[in-house]
Amino acid sequence: MKININMGVATVVSDEEGEFDFPAGTEGTTQLQRFTVVDGSIVDNHPGLDDAGVIAAELATANEFSLTQERNATIKVMKTRAGTILENNRWKVDKAREQDELNGTSTLAAVLQSREDIRILSNTKEDLVNTMTDVEAIRATRLETTDTRISTSNGGDFVEIF
CA–CA separation, 20 vs 41, rounded Å? Predict the structure, then answer.
């Protein structure tokens, strides 16, 4: 799409389908990205908004996109960390199962509960991130690592998660 600008004012759009005038009321706009050619006509993607309104709408869209990207990146880091901890502690399940068989104990339930607590903590942190509306706060959440004690029926496992 090619836009003709005369004395700083957009007047005509041309593309492979021909030339088109801007919709009435938008002739003096400085926000040319608001227009697209659809089925041989110029369409205003922000009808009813002046240039300031277009700028505000596009900034809001960009901010929401940035928030979504930061949330997704943070959640991916948290899920990866939780998954790594679960994978690295899988041996505890095998050991508890063997001890229970050999000694008649019931330690497996406590180990499984500890693993479930890690999943619950990860999901809780994910829910928190999904409510955040500040990109910098989301980034800080992703970058920080704190020690978290997960209380379980066997006295708690000390794990470094988030």
Answer: 7
